[in-house]
Amino acid sequence: MEITYIGHSGFLLNTNDAYFLFDYYTGHIPEMDRDKPLVVFVSHKHKDHFNPVIFGLADKYPHILFILAKGVPYKNLSVKFSVTMAKWQELCPGDFKNIMLVKKDISEKVMLDNGKKLLIRTLRSTDEGVAFTIRYNDRNYYHAGDLNIWAFEEETEEYNRNMEQMYIKEMEKLKYIKPDVAFVPLDPRLGSNSYKGLLTFLSYTDCQYIFPMHCWENYGIIGEFIKNSPEYKDRIVKITKKNTTFQLL
Predict the structure, then answer these.
(1) What is the spatial distance between Cα 74 and Cα 7, in angstroms, rounded to a whole number?
(2) Nearest Cα to 167, choosing from 187, 181, 194, 146?
(3) pLDDT tens track for 72-127
(4) Nearest CA among 242, 168, 213 for reference residue 49
(5) Enclosing H/E stretch for 224
(6) Secondary structure (3-state) at 202
(7) Considering the entire predicted model, what is its pTM?
(8) What's the CA gap between 203 and 205, in Å, rounded?
(9) Whole-number Å distance between alpha carbons of 88 and 111
């Protein structure tokens, strides 16, 4: 299994027989095998998680499926992307058969073009959209999107307490899913509260590989987290730059 950190919250998961692309908005997408299924996930429509250029991947990869949180635009895009969308409508006439819209708290099984089943579950975000968990080839993966404890220092104590409670409610659901690999926000803009979401996630799961994301290219915060919480150093993947590929067992 390979995981490529593309940038910000964008990752490409490469298994032996399928690809999974999460929350791409900027950076270089690696070349992929056209014969393998490609599933593209978008957790919500914020511009740092969604870029309409992803629909252009349909021109190159025939076994593609888009899993979009409800509210992500996929029809009436700007003129800049109209050619891409015209091509997409040609490939998927009528009901856009290769686009699946999802809302919070769903559980759906889909059949990929390789004949294998993919189980998709969603959690409710504490910001907008959803978080994704997927089960494929007997392994579980979690991408948080913007599900985090967004406890900004300038917010009231009550607001931040409610934010933490909402997050814990979702973690209670996640602990039964037991992800093997997870992509979790570690946002330096939260100041002294930056670690809260990741630490809470770690307290609810025994996930083996955790990729911090949403760091706004401040990768130093990952090293700082490991230094302050050395008990987790073997589980946190230390990202230092964009377009880095990690080989996992």
Answers:
(1) 22
(2) 146
(3) 987 655 434 443 545 555 555 444 568 888 999 999 999 999 999 999 999 999 99
(4) 213
(5) helix 220-228
(6) helix
(7) 0.93
(8) 6
(9) 20
